[in-house]
């Protein structure tokens, strides 16, 4: 499908299902485009990648029922935006960008009105988006 198995495992795709490369995120990009764009991320200096603003991200409980918490660490003060996207690419929860301080942060997201299924959580800063698969029971 054009994406390495370890990359698919990391973001929660099924490496045995090649059609998942065509699943669209809320902004209309496919997972294959996300992977290819990650290969072309801007670099500073010789072989040194730009500072990753989001350095750690954890979602729990996962699977979730009525809510889940996302914990993340930021390298610098920045704006952060949260979007929860269903398997059809529809944004089902979107929070406006909020200014966040560097260091450890967390946010609880209410999922009590959502149908059971698999979703993708995008946590975005102006320079990077991190994605985690979230299962709602």
Describe the structure concisely.
With 137 residues, the chain is mostly beta strands. 12% of the residues lie in helices and 45% in strands.
Walk me through this protein's architecture.
- There is one protein chain.
- With 137 residues, the protein is mostly beta strands.
- Helices cover 12% and strands 45% of the residues.
- It contains 2 helices and 9 strands.
- The strands form 3 sheets. A 4-stranded antiparallel β-sheet has the order 6-5-8-9, with no helix packed on it.
- The two termini are 29 Å apart.
Topology, please?
Layout: H1 5-11, H2 31-39, E1 43-44, E2 48-49, E3 54-60, E4 67-74, E5 78-86, E6 91-100, E7 103-110, E8 117-124, E9 129-136
Features:
2 helices, mainly beta, single chain, 3-stranded antiparallel beta sheet, globular
Q: Strand percentage, roughly?
A: over 45%
Distance between the termini: 29 Å
- Give, in spatial order, the strands making up the sheet with the most strands: 6-5-8-9
Question: What is the helical fraction, as a range of percent?
Answer: 10-25%
Q: Specify the structural class.
A: mainly beta
What's the helix count? 2
Shape: globular
Q: Give the overall pLDDT as a whole number.
A: 81
**Unreliable stretches:** 42-50
Order of helices and strands: HHEEEEEEEEE
Number of strands: 9
Main sheet, how many strands, which sense, barrel?
4 strands, antiparallel
Gyration radius, in Å:
15 Å
